[in-house]
């Protein structure tokens, strides 16, 4: 930790001196201080930046918010520790801004300065790690012919993300996800290929291959007296295809499977530009007996409007609310309101992205029951799902 460079941005001279003295007691050698954002920028420009900024927000002249924006744009800081007496809602919004700027947020010391907390936060910082954090490596799929070969060889597979009742632990269904079992790179997620599939007009081909695999799984389970509802994601480009609904109805009739075993998930962004034909298809799916879910509920700006207009039977609460449940006080109010809304409209609510026992406990307190996420099960292929169901 001795090699870390740090700037203390604090407009009150006495507070600034106290903070710098406390940091020296922690063994830090490279410490500088500034009383406003303009002074701090000039100082960092001359010395070439620092690892960490210990930042107050309120000050005369250039405040902490403007300083962080300029410092990130010029590459003069890598990480931020807040030390400012502001309301929790404003503090949380600032944290979100820091992360959007590409800076690492280490924590919040508040005021007065807590040397023990500062020691804990600074020790968690690794100066050897490059910031902002790099994105996971994406395997480049080079050509259209590679995609077509993958389709011909049946390499695109249906994987399943189970949904559970958090109170009883009962399996309530599964969302069908696309995976590419590539002969060279192994199992690839949609991040590696979906954009290329869409740009090359192959989204329908992918959907129908996965749809048939989903029906096959349902038939296999029906033979042994088991049943599972499967949810399929529909892309915006598919919504206006009149033949899609007709084909779904025909395949259900041929397979002898009930329509209420299928649920179709549509994102709000996909509905924003949906023409009349798309809305007709959604209504027809419901008339057939299929479920209809609004995916990523709350992530956009017109969720409530579309929820009133269209015959949804389920809403899926966006995972961002779960991730911020502990740190952002208002997220709990949003979740509680979504529970009440779903109950009033007599539709189900599924919470996405549950990854910890703490999140599960809080969600149950807020009235949620259905959820999916890594805490319960990770996506799995059809064979693994069958084993999972058999074991339960």
Automatic annotation (TrEMBL):
Where does the signal peptide begin and end?
none
| One GO MF term | cyclic-guanylate-specific phosphodiesterase activity
Annotated EAL domain ranges read 140-392
This protein's record includes keyword Phosphoprotein: yes
Q: Which residues carry this modification: 4-aspartylphosphate?
A: 56
For whether the record's keyword set contains Lyase, the answer is no
Keyword annotations for this protein? Hydrolase, Phosphoprotein
Its name, as the record gives it, is EAL domain-containing response regulator
Protein source organism: Pseudomonas solani
